[in-house]
Amino acid sequence: MNRAGLLVLGAMLCNVLGWTQNGNIAAKLGYPQTIVYNGKIVTMDDNSFTSAVGAIVQAMAVRDGKILATGSTAEIRALAGPQTKQIDLKGRTVLPSFALTHEHPTDWVFIEPRAFRHVLPNDDVIISRWMPNLPPKEQLARLEGVVKEAVAKAKPGQWIRVIFNWGPDYEWAAEMQDLFSKSITKAYLDQLAPNNPMTVKDGFIGSIANKAAVEVFRTVHPDLDFYTTGRRGAQPSEERIRRVEQSGNLSRPVDPDAMLKGKLPILADLLKAEMELWVRHGITAFGSGPYSAFNLQAFNLLDQQGRMPARFVWAYQGPAWDLETLRVMAGALGQGSDYLWLGGAFSGSGSGCMTIPEKPGWREEQGRGGEEGEGGRGGGGGENCTFAPGTVSREINERIIESGMRLAGVHTGGDKDIDYFMDSIEAGAKKAGMTLEQIRAKRNAFDHSSGAPRPEQIPRVKNLGMMVSQINTILWETHRGASVTAKQYGIEYTNWVVPRKSVTEAGIMNTMEIDRPLPHKIFFFITKGMNRYNDRDKQVYGPGERTDRITQLKALTRWSGYYFMREDRMGTLEPGKYADFIVLDRDFLTVPEADIPKIEVLMTMVGGKMIHLGADLAREIGMTPAGASTWTEPVPDGWIEKRW
Ligand SMILES: [Zn+2]
Description:
Layout (H helix, E strand, L loop, with lengths): L2 H18 L2 H8 L3 E4 L2 E3 L13 E2 L1 E5 L2 E6 L1 H5 L7 E4 L4 E4 L1 E3 L4 H4 L4 H7 L7 E4 L5 H18 L6 E4 L9 H11 L2 H7 L5 E4 L5 E3 L1 H10 L17 H10 L6 H6 L4 H16 L3 E6 L4 H12 L6 E6 L6 H8 L9 E6 L16 H5 L25 H12 L11 H18 L3 H7 L2 E2 L11 H6 L3 E5 L10 H7 L11 H6 L4 E4 L8 H10 L1 E2 L4 E2 L8 H8 L1 H6 L17 E4 L16 E6 L2 E5 L1 H7 L23
Parallel strand pairs: 1-6, 2-7, 8-13, 9-10, 10-11, 13-14, 14-15, 16-17, 17-18
Antiparallel strand pairs: 1-4, 2-3, 4-5, 7-21, 11-12, 19-20, 21-22, 22-23
């Protein structure tokens, strides 16, 4: 709060006290529950696209989940009541906590073991086995033994799941994906586990289910085609259903919908724990499609119980895509609670199709076709664009816009599909008779930004008032992203991969995503966005798109509030906003760039609640440690986070 606001507030309190002669009224009006002081509190209240952070204050008061006031230590401490917990920050840096606008805790909980083991520490409910960090061939060689042991232990009908390991630096990702697709078949899994339902995960979101698992899934979703094939909109197809049945590829919903059938409270506990894990690293809001109605129900259950440890902004993914249904959904846009609200809708994922030609021989060398979604590996090419005229996804996009709904949460890849994506926005808006101002007010967005916008697209993105969610992760990976773009199209095009500097300079708000189960790498990924140096390729990709740390920070805080359409309530540390903030062990603004990855989040408050508090700071301030850093369940071998 600025000084004037603080004075007004002070005057109000004095008036009330003087008038009633009763200090209890002030308590009823509400003393702050928490005050943090003697800090370097970076409010991020700067409204520009420059590298200004706005006001830096010493102290902040929190009441009823929101920021009551900010100011000097003396001003804010004067607001304390008898019950107010006052925390001396001893000069430490405080930032608004981070929001990732394309992030799937609903998937990550079924990959990384930490949260899963915290909720289900033994094999009573589900038999879960994580492969050690070994070369993919060795992991595959172990599968039979691992499943044999699990089957021997399993009760009748009990689910078994095995998760392959990509390695702490994803060193096995490419080889694992390749080997998995060649070796793991439904028939093979039926042989290994003929009676118990079982899924085997490729180390990421892909998994193959055996026959027994498909049967359970079918009792929940008789139409196997929904969600599993990425249909989301077209009519069910017998051909696709048969393919799903034969392949056992049930995609994301198999875990929440079939494995946890009838166990919604357990699913809720799992999602809560997964979010707590991310909160421990400073991330307190996620945007994503839920990928399963049961995930959404589990979030809702947590919210009803007042147990959401973070905020989840969901995107509608069907099943119904007719105009009238979408108009109803548009009427709920932005609605929900403080912890769970509707942020948009999307159907198909943008493909990797680009306007530039692939290098000769690339496709033959790869021996594979294009691939869509999740970071845009590239590929696709030619006319195989998801949003090309005449495609189902294009029609749905237009209908989303025409209905008054917002396009957000969509995975995209290449720039050519982004041309089509913007065409669909303009076409849908035209049908609805929307003005340019009305289009802009929707803040339609595309995610990943893995091959777009290309430089000449940027003015159009800006003109349509769009937002761009960007995935720094692919400046680090080598199986996807800039590393692949360099080989596929030429290194000169790697400035199209996450072009954060260009969009920022154009005045386009851009946001951040990890889009992988790697929350502990968040500060590392900030530096990847800054230096764009790929450590394994020993190569800088798109040096012209390097930014300073403040631009990265604005993407993580202030601009994500706009993406979530709650900039009045989140993204900065200002009075009236959610008390979502992190306390760091070193100063993000001044620490050498090489040390940014080492930054530790000592404490995270979400809505004024202590969701993460590390042991050292807890001891110092006389409080009990809280959250994921207190978990004691053993982490399976080979899944220890890589530290710096
Ligand atoms: Zn994603």
